[in-house]
Each structure stands twice: as structure tokens, then as C-alpha cells.
């Protein structure tokens, strides 16, 4: 029943989500969530299909007493005292050694999966505020690899036209002191997230990546609080045991043999019993959380490195120009020195941070060949617009010169003085 519910809620298409992100994000919200969901199913099956606990009861207990002891000790918390130590008589000392997590392991694993998925949910819900349908653009770019050359060209032209309208729509056309100051601030810090300055998408995306990094580091603190046994150093202890070739002993964090206290009231008499119990579920918990420790360390390194890489791309503007320039190396559209200068303006003034961000996503989710064709189409659109503007400016200057000559011919007083 639980497996069917989880299967319906976490179908692969729903879990995978959109493709408008990079591999670092998918490592968090797709593969890590899948692993945690799988572990939750394994632990849940172990708890509810078999017997999660077995208790050694006194010989005078009949069968239904034994079932009562098992149920009571599973619902309440058992505690761990090593076989080499004497069981303390103080009840408070026993309470300090209680193990309180094993009943809630499936729920904590699902909660961890939700935390890993949460940044992706935020990204999918709010990325459309930028005015561009990222998922649709990426899907169309990916489909160009399967169609005929004619369909491929039409699709790329359609994407370029759509991006051109988006880039021209969200642009600042009124310049004043406030606008100029805001533009200077967005050049220094893209986290200003301004659509008209072309920094909304990339700024919001960096914020989402910060959420991924905070989440994966916070998972260690969450497991420390959940298990109450310094989970953050668990992997170091395992490595130390392997390095020193120490025989694998029963873990203090995941003991398989524990103790349970319960009281039975008979009339006015209260009898207290202490029984020894076995937790087979901890055999799975131990291996699962060892793997999770190393997996979380790996995800932390990858996520933080990916975040720093995107911050570098955002801060250093020359890397943006170099990124676009490399797609023109095989192009024959760059003829003159003016064209090379125009490429710089094409990158910084036309595409800006958000346009470059969309192109990077297209490259990561399709191929560089698709991106080369898309950049060429955008370049043609941009160059035609600048050519028309230059032609219009030249025509205005020519008309002005003609009007000036006509005025001079009509009014001799306007003629220049001869020396």
C-alpha cells in the first residue's frame, strides 16, 4: 500500500521535473531524491512486512504476553547498554541511552527527499516570471536533433525569433538617474534580479543554487538532531576502522541488541520488567546511513563547486564575451573589425546575462551544434537591426546635408565667406 502511494506520488516524470537546469541541480533534485525514496521504501518494507523487533521475554510469559512486549517495546523507545557494562539502576541513566529514531526512519528519509526537491520546486514555479518559457525553449532545442534539416532550421529560427522578442520586450527604454544607478548596481551584483536589466534569470538561478548548497550542508545538522549521536563524524569513524583493519563490531549508533523496560499493573502492584530485544531493521539502517554520509559529502563538494563556478561566470564579464566568441570561430559572418566590436555589444547589450543564461541551458541540454546555429540566427537578427539603424542614421545625415545645400543656394547670405 505504502509502495503504491509512493510510486504514484514519485513517478519518474514528476520526479524528473523540467530540463531547464544543469547536471548539478539534477544530482540534487533527481538522483538524490530517487535514492532517498528507494531507501524509505526498503526500510518501510522491513518494518511492516516482517517483524521489526524480537524480544526475549521471561519463561513465565504466555504467548500473548510476548506479543504485548514486542508491540510495547517497538512503540516506546529501547535503550542500548553494552554487554560489557552493568545495566544502571537509575532510570534517568537508562533514559539517556534511549534510541529514539528507528520508528521514524522512513519519514525522515522522505523529509530529506522533500528538502532536496524543494529548490527545484521554487525554480519551476518562479522562473516563468522572467517572461520566457525556459522549459519550452530547451525542449524545442533538444527536438531539433531528431527532425529533418528543414524542420531543424525552422525550429531554430522560431526559437531565435521568440528569444529576440523577449530580449527586446524586457529592456529599459527610459533613461534617468535612478535607472542608470540601478544598471550600475546590477553590473556589480546580478542578484538585483532585474528583468529590464537582463539579470533576473541568472540572479534567481544563483539564489536557487545557494539553496541547494545550504540544504545539503544542513542535512548533516538535521541528521545530528534526528539521531542524537554526532552523525557528522560517522564516516570518519568508518574510514578509521577500515584503515586500522578493526573488526566490524556492533555500532553504538545502530545497535541490533537493545534493552526495553516496561511495567505491568496487577491490582495495586506494579511490576517492572527489563527484557532484551533485537532490532533487525538496524542492520539496514546502518548500511543506509553509512552510504548516505559519503553521498552527502560527495553532493556537498559538487554542489558548492557548481555554485562557485556559476558565480564566476556571473561576476567576470569577459568570460561571457569569450563564451559567445567561440561559437563564431567557425562562422563566416564575422568579416570586419567592426563586426568583431559588434560581437562585444551583441553579448553585453543585446543578450545580456539572461540571454546568455538561456543559451547555456540550451547547450547543456542539447548539443553545441544546436547552439552554434541558434547564436547565428540571433546574430543575424541583431545585425539586421543595427544595419537598419545605421542606414537610417546615414539617410538622416544625407537629408540634412541636402537641406543645408538647398538653404545656401536659396539664401546667398548663408554661403561661407571666402578668404
From TrEMBL:
The chain crosses the membrane at residues 30-49, 101-118, 200-222, 288-312. GO terms for biological process: monoatomic ion transmembrane transport. Residues 401-413 have a biased composition (Basic and acidic residues). Coiled coil: none annotated. Keywords: Cell membrane, Ion channel, Ion transport, Membrane, Transmembrane, Transmembrane helix, Transport. Residues 389-419 are annotated as: Disordered. It comes from the Eukaryota. InterPro entries: Innexin. Structural component of the gap junctions. This is Innexin. It comes from Octopus sinensis (East Asian common octopus). The gene is LOC115221634.
